[in-house]
Amino acid sequence: MTVEGAVVGTASFQAGFKFTLDDGTGQITLLMWHNVYDDCWDAAEINLGAKVRASGEIGQYEGELQIEPDFGGDVKAITGAAASAPQREIGSLSGGDEGQRVMIEGEIIRVEGRGCKSQVCKWAN
Questions:
Q1: Which residues, in sequence order, are CB contacts of 40 under 8 Å at separation 6+?
Q2: Which architecture characterizes domain 2-79 according to CATH?
Q3: So what's the pLDDT on residue 84?
Q4: Does 4 score more than 80 pLDDT?
Q5: Rounded to the nearest 5°, which phi and psi values hold at 115?
Q6: Does 3 score more than 60 pLDDT?
Q7: Residue 55's beta-bridge partner residues?
Q8: What count of other Cβ atoms lies within 10 Å of the Cβ of residue 25?
Q9: I need a surface site. Which of 29, 50, 55, 79 has the fewest CB within 10 A?
Q10: Residue 66: CA atoms inside 13 Å, Cβ hemisphere, count?
Q11: For 50-69, what is each residue's pLDDT tens digit?
């Protein structure tokens, strides 16, 4: 099966990456294991705002529809990721900005929870 859509969500996990694709009629998760992602020539272009075409096996995991390509060549960026988001002041953000991509700058003063499991933020374990 082949699907095409805009990347509207991204997430990483221990064994790879998940990209949420939206074609205007629905959404599907593009599941790329590390070996598939590393083999994909367009990997650097697959980010929020990119339009992607992916071929693979359709399945479901925990009620979530997903497509799983076998090789990096099964995933192509039709258009690259969106340009950098505009930088905003934190105080200027409101509920009307929900779902928008923005860039903020500041100092992290507190971290709560234990959600980070990667080597990069080992301190959170």
A1: 32, 46, 72, 73, 75
A2: Beta Barrel (2.40)
A3: 64
A4: yes
A5: -75, -20
A6: yes
A7: 2
A8: 6
A9: 79
A10: 15
A11: 999 999 999 999 999 999 99
Structure tokens that stand for 103 in this block? 């860039």
The single residue listed with the structure tokens 């694709």 is 21
d(CA 3, CA 52): 8
Distance CA(30)–CA(47), nearest Å, equals 12
One-letter amino acid identity for 105? E
Q: Which residues pair with 56 in a beta bridge?
A: none
> What pTM does this model have?
0.67
* Residue matched to tokens 């992916």: 54
Q: What does the alpha-carbon distance between residue 93 and residue 73 come to, in Å, rounded to a whole number?
A: 40
Residue 102 CB: number of other CB atoms within 10 A? Answer: 13
Q: What's the CA gap between 52 and 22, in Å, rounded?
A: 10
